[in-house]
Amino acid sequence: MNDKNKTRTQLISELVELRQRVDEREEPNDVRRRVKKELNEKQTTLEKIINLNPYSMSIYDSKGHYILGNQAFMDLFGIESMPQEYSLFNDPVLKRMGLHKMMLELKKGKAIYPDNYIWYNLREFSQDLPDKDVCIRGVGFPIINKDGNVESIVIMLEDITEWKRAEDALKESEEKYRKVIENIYDIVYSSYADGKIYFISPNVLTLTGYKPEEIIGHNIIEFVHPDDREHVISDYKKTIQTGEEYPTLLRLSKKDGSYFYVEDFGKVVREGNKIVGVTGVLRDITERKQAENTLKESVYVVRTFWTH
To answer: Do domains 42-165 and 184-293 have the same CATH topology?
Structure first.
């Protein structure tokens, strides 16, 4: 069929197809420029991912030798670069911590996810490196090439030094507080706003015969003498409502059914501006009450003697 016999639609269709072929055709130099541009863009994106990552990231070759690290990695250890002789698989700290075998899993193409944190100091590797203790936890994973071999290894670390020091300081404080509580003669307790006890010091056993677990979960009023409950409830409510202290005199029950006098000094516990409970001290004042009663009896005897 010659051009004269072609319909207008066929001519337009062939023209469009021809334009598409022209548009798709590229010179070799154009192809190289396009590929190079795409590679540069991917390289730039990869560098941003590494350098702007807030977590420490370092890359090693298949033998564990250091290749590069991001800024977070440098800041974490206080260095500008790792020594050329450094290798993940000969790290003295990791060997001492028993993590050497786990690191070898990376050579086999397996990712590792250590459960625990470790304290790390580069000075153990070289005296020329900073003497800086850091607490870290992280993951490691291999980069596998097209042949299925480990090409490089990536280690990502999180710096938890400040968090761990704060946790250790809290544990130390709690331990000191626990020792004080265990050795103090008074009974220390904590209760919710409704009066239910959630903590009581171990020496409650010595003073009352009750074990702490026999009291925790119960309302404090259950252990108060029936004749004292009304004013105890009143003082407790006023403390919760006002936040002020109301020292209260009451009789506390023992497991054998007897009672003894205590004085309650309670302070409110707040969460923000909300009062959520009370922490207090119950002080045994039995001897003081006995002395007061003895004095009252003596005064009564003297008055009776002089009036007769």
So the answer is: yes
Q: What is the sign, positive or negative, of the torsion defined by CA atoms of 292, 296, 297, 298?
A: positive
CB 228 within 8 A of CB 250: yes
Whole-model pTM: value is 0.53
Pairing of strands 134-144, 197-200: unpaired
Extract the tokens encoding 7: 């319909």
CA distance 204 to 142: 58
Q: Report the CATH fold assignment for 42-165.
A: Beta-Lactamase (3.30.450)
Distance of CA 161 to the CA centre of its chain: 12
Q: In angstroms, what CA-CA distances link 171 with 163, 167, 177, 180, 181?
A: 12, 6, 10, 14, 15
Going by C-beta distance under 8 Å and a sequence separation of 6 or more, which residues neighbour residue 300? none
Each residue's pLDDT tens digit, 166-177: 998 888 877 777
Domain ranges of the chain: 42-165, 184-293
The side-by-side arrangement of strands in the sheet containing 66-69 is 66-69, 56-61, 150-159, 134-144, 118-120
Chain centroid to Cα 306, Å, comes to: 73
Is 240 in contact with 278 (CB distance < 8 Å)?
Answer: yes
The superfamily CATH assigns to domain 184-293 is PAS domain (3.30.450.20)
The H-or-E segment that residue 136 falls in is strand 134-144
For residue range 7-54, list pLDDT tens digits in order: 555 555 665 566 566 555 555 666 677 767 777 777 777 777 777 778
